[in-house]
Amino acid sequence: MVAGLEASGHLRPGPVGDAFLAVRREVLMPQAYVRRSRPDETPPRWDLLDWGVPADREELLGLLYGVESVLVQHDGEPVLGRVPAPRSGGSMTAMSSTAGMTVALLQRLGLRPGQRVLDVGTGAGVTAAVACVIAGAAGVVTVDRDEHVTAAARERLALLGHRPTAVTGNGQNGWPAGADYDRIFVSYAIPRVPEAWPQQLAAGGLALATLSTSSPSWPGLAVLTRTGSGRVTARLEAVRLGHRAGHGWSQLYLKPGLRGRIEAADGGSTRTTHTGPPPDDARGLWLALDHLHPGLVRNWAADHLVIGAPDCGSWVTARPDDSGTWTVTVCGPRDIWAEIQDTATRWQAAGSPSSYRLHLEPDGTQWVSAGSGPAELSWQLPAALQPAVTVPPQAPEPTPAPKESTP
């Protein structure tokens, strides 16, 4: 796994790679789920693979040291003492994120011995284990909202020789008892920055968290730093991959019915144009589109541009042809193609940014901006997190991209 991460460019030689080599994932995740049902099949079906079952070991090793996320908890169940058996219905409620994204973010943190580290969203305990190896367990706090996840991580980290402070609580509150932290790592997406995280940063500290709308297609990375004088600065970087939505926050996806209508071009209006869609690597533009015109989801599995709006059923597709023109089909009450072109114009006027200023005001207002004057491109972040049902992480559409790339 480590050799593959190095070959793909995700991982550089150094302490993070050394820590990954030292962390035995089969100890942290002696059980993991594998989906047995088709992506659109309901109810979904999983098998729980178990390291104690010799027949499961080869498949389990493939999951643990592969490129995909590892599912470790179903419907909030106790994690310790489970009997391996099929599961049906419900959803997966805890997971270990993809290794490529995890190592890239951990390298970005620049962990060093002796630092105090807050790991928000314990999951399987991988990031906590890496932090213990590099920084030392005495300064590591890992917090998760689920007591079963916390209990399993505490026991399994101890088997690896690490005893960080593993606590159960709302990650948005951080963990004041262990502050101030030199580094804060957040393993789920947020719609705005909780007040506690910048407050609990030490001077010179750094916090990283995925900041997103309800769409998983164009995530941003919130980068928070505290200067030696105590001032917090923040920016939002457009990235290719991000963590999934946290507990209580719904995430959009393209349901089978809408995907079928898009594939059949059912009711669409078609035009030919010499203006194609913005390139995929213009991530700052797509991030702006996601916030200025929310509610859109891209089907990254398609070989051409396919974007839908699940709430109203609107959609757009764009296909290139051999003559250098594009065939664009739009459908529904929203003209998504016009929204894309409008955002492109505003983004270019603002200087085609890939990173935005993230403003955290004393009154709790949070907003994002780039450029200045009449050309400024800006938007406000939501005032509060609205309770909702989280889309299960095994759903196929929320995966941000078919191939992994460094955030």
Automatic annotation (TrEMBL):
PANTHER family registered for this protein in UniProt: PROTEIN-L-ISOASPARTATE O-METHYLTRANSFERASE, PROTEIN-L-ISOASPARTATE(D-ASPARTATE) O-METHYLTRANSFERASE
Location in or out of the cell: Cytoplasm
Region (Disordered): 383-407
EC number(s) recorded for this UniProt protein: 2.1.1.77
Protein name from the UniProt record: Protein-L-isoaspartate O-methyltransferase
Cited InterPro entries: PCMT, SAM-dependent_MTases_sf
MF GO annotations: methyltransferase activity
Domain of life: Bacteria
One GO location term (cellular component): ribosome
Keywords recorded for this protein, A-Z: Cytoplasm, Methyltransferase, Ribonucleoprotein, Ribosomal protein, S-adenosyl-L-methionine, Transferase
Record-level GO BP terms: methylation
Sequence ranges of Low complexity compositional bias: 383-392
Enzyme class, UniProt record, top EC level: transferase
Similarity-based family: Belongs to the methyltransferase superfamily. L-isoaspartyl/D-aspartyl protein methyltransferase family.
High-level lineage: Bacteria, Bacillati, Actinomycetota, Actinomycetes, Kitasatosporales
Pfam families: PCMT (PF01135)
